Amino acid sequence: QVQLVESGGGLVQAGGSLRLSCAASGRTFSRYIMGWFRQAPGKEREFVAGINWSSGTTYYTDSLKGRFTISKDNAKKTVYLQMNSLKPEDTAVYYCAARAPGAGTTYNYWGQGTQVTVSS
Predict the structure, then answer these.
(1) Is residue 19 a contact partner of residue 9, using CB atoms and an 8 Å limit?
(2) Which of 11, 79, 85, 104 is the most buried (most CB within 10 A)?
(3) How many Å apart are CA 53 and CA 74, to the nearest integer?
(4) pLDDT band at 103 (very low <50, low <70, confident <90, very high)
């Protein structure tokens, strides 16, 4: 059974930084795409960043490129999201997700989410 467990959320002042972690377990994730999404109150869930577990190729939503960085540690089976220069509008629940090879654009597995709150 695949499990994704996020951690690292919290309360931070505007301009600060946080690093989110997503610990993955339950299978080998080679060729998976690991992604970070977020959902703010009253808004739809949006894609933040993704990384190919095998190649390390990264993907970002344009508006966040330069402030957010996705990375991975194969040995720890953990994906990270480094968030810098945080703004109040970054406040959301952040979710880790995994997309299996051949799944198209569908993310098959999701974590429970971690709350990020940025105060002004």
Answers:
(1) no
(2) 79
(3) 8
(4) confident
Cβ atoms of residues 8 and 19 within 8 Å = yes
* Cβ atoms of 55 and 46 closer than 8 Å: no
CA dihedral 4, 110, 86, 91 (to 10 degrees): -130
Task: Write the DSSP symbol of residue 69.
Answer: E
Give the sign of the dihedral formed by CA 87, CA 108, CA 4, CA 60.
Answer: negative
- Taking residues 58-87, report their average pLDDT: 96
Dihedral (C-alpha) 14, 22, 46, 9: value to the nearest 10 degrees?
Answer: -30
Q: How many Cα atoms within 13 Å fall on the side-chain side of residue 98? A: 28
pLDDT of 28 over the 90 cut: no
Say if residues 24 and 33 touch (Cβ distance below 8 Å). Answer: no
